Amino acid sequence: MLHRLVLATLLLAAAPLCAQQAVQSSAPSGAPSATALDFEFFKAKVQPILTTKRDGNARCISCHGSGTPMRLQPLLDGAATWNDTDARKNFEQMSARIVPGKPDDSRLLRHPLAEEAGGDPHHDGGKHWTSKNDPEWQTLAAWANGATLQSTAKPLTLHPRIVQTNSAGDDVHIIDPASNKVVGRIVGVEVGHGAAAAPDGSRIYVSNEANSTLDAVDARTLRVIANIPLTGHPNNISISKDGKRVYVAIREEKGAVDVIDTQTLTRAKSVPVPGATHNTYVTPDGRYVIAGSVAGKNFTVIDQKTEEPVWTLNFDLGVRPMAFEQNKDGSTKTAFVQLTDFNGFAVVDFATHKELKRIELPKIAAGKKPVLEGGNTSHGMAVTADNSRLVVDSRLNSAVYVYSLPDLKLLGEVGVGIAPDWVTLTPDGKTAYVANAGSNNVSVVDIFGMKEVTRITVGQVPKRNITAMLP
Q1: Cα–Cα distance, 344 to 362 (Å, whole number)
Q2: 336 in Cβ contact with 390 (< 8 Å)
Q3: Per-residue pLDDT tens digits for 50-107
Q4: Which tens digits make up the pLDDT trace of 414-441?
Q5: Distance from C-alpha of 275 to C-alpha of 279, rounded to nearest angstrom
Q6: What's the alpha-carbon Rg for the chain, to the nearest Å?
Q7: CA–CA distance from 71 to each of 48, 136, 141 (Å)?
Q8: Which residue spans within 395-450 are E strands per DSSP?
Q9: Which of 216, 214, 209, 245 shows the shortest CA–CA distance to 229?
Q10: What is the rounded CA–CA span in Å between residue 354 and residue 394?
Q11: What domains can be seen in the chain, in order of their start residue?
C-alpha cells in the first residue's frame, strides 16, 4: 500500500512538467491544443522582436547571442534573420521560458517588462517595455496563449499616411494627412533615402545610406526590426504590388538593382543595369521595374516576373525622378522623366520606347531669387491616381506646377518652401505633400485650389516621401 502511495505521489508531481513538455514539443507539428506554442507564429512574429532596435536599448540578439542562459543562435554573416534550422533552436530556448496559456507567469514576458507594469524587479538586459499595452509584449502574450498565423490573420485597420525621410538626419516622420500633424517617428535610420510600404501595412522599408542597408520597420511599433546588407550605396527604392520584393537602386558603378525578398529579409539577387542607379519605380500595373541612372543617362525597364532587363532608353542628360500615366486598361502609356539641369521634364511613349518632346517649366518670376544649391533644378513629380493631373516640383523656382492629362496643359503654379525635392499625393489626388529640402519642412498643397495649405516641420533636409496605408 505504501509503495502504491509513493508511486502515485511521484506521478502527480511529474504530471505538470510532463504536460508542459508535451505542449512545447507538440507545438511545431501544429497540435490543436489551445495552449500549444506555434512555431510558424514564433518565426514570423516573435523572432523579429529579437532583432528590433528600441530607442535607448540594446537589441535582444546583442546580449542573448552569447554569455546568457537563454542563448540565441548567431546570425549568419549578412543575414537579417535566422534560417529554419536555427529558428527551431531559438524556439526551443524561448519556449522553455513560457508557461503556455499564462503570459503573466512566463519569465520571457515578465523579465524585460517594467516592474511597475508587473515585471520582474531586474533584468540585466534592461527594461524593453513600459506597459503590457506595448505591441511587442502583446505579440509575445498572444504566442504564449497559443496564437497561430491563421488565428491572427485579421487585416489591420489602415489609414493614409505620408512617410517622410530626412536625408541629413537619423529619423523618418509619419504624417497624418487628415490632421496634417506628425503622428509617428522612426528613429535610428541614419541618412535615410527612399521609403516603401508593404501593401498590408505591416512594414515600412527605408534605404539606409550610412550603413548601405535596407532597414525593415514594424509599422505598428515604428521600430527597426532588421538591417539587410546591400551590395553598395543605396538610393531610392520601390516595392512590388504583392509586397514580396523591394527593389533598391544601387548608386555605384557598374550599376545594379538589388532585389530583396521581404519574406526571408535577404537579398535574392542583383540585376545589373548600365550605370549607377538613382531611382527605382514599379509601374502602376506592376509589370515592370524601372531603374533610372544619372551617370548612365538612361533608364532600364526590368520585367518584374523574370527580374531581367528587357529594354533601355538613352538620353543626352542624366535621368532623375519619373512618373507614369496609364492607359484605360491599366498598362503604362507615358513616362515623364526629369533630367539633369533641365527645369522641366521629357515625355516618353512607353510602348514605342521613344521620347516625344520636352516640357520646360515657366521661367522664374522677375525679382525672385533662384535656388541654385543642393540638387537638380527640377526634382520630384507624381501623377494622380485617376490620371487627370501631373504635379511637378521645381527646386530652382521653389514651386510646384500642375498639368492636366493627357494634354499637358499648365493649370497653375503654387509657391512652396525652399528647394522642393520630392512630391507624393493623397489617394484621392486632391493634395500634394512636397518635401522642402532647403527649409526642413513639408508643404501641403491643394492641387485644385492651387494654394499652399500649411507647412509641417520635419527633420534635417527632407527629400524622398511616399503615401502609404498604415495602422
Answers
A1: 9
A2: yes
A3: 999 998 999 999 999 888 899 999 998 878 999 999 999 999 999 999 999 999 999 9
A4: 999 999 999 999 999 999 999 999 999 9
A5: 12
A6: 26
A7: 16, 20, 21
A8: 399-404, 410-415, 420-425, 431-436, 441-446
A9: 214
A10: 24
A11: 19-144 (no CATH), 159-470 (2.130.10.10)
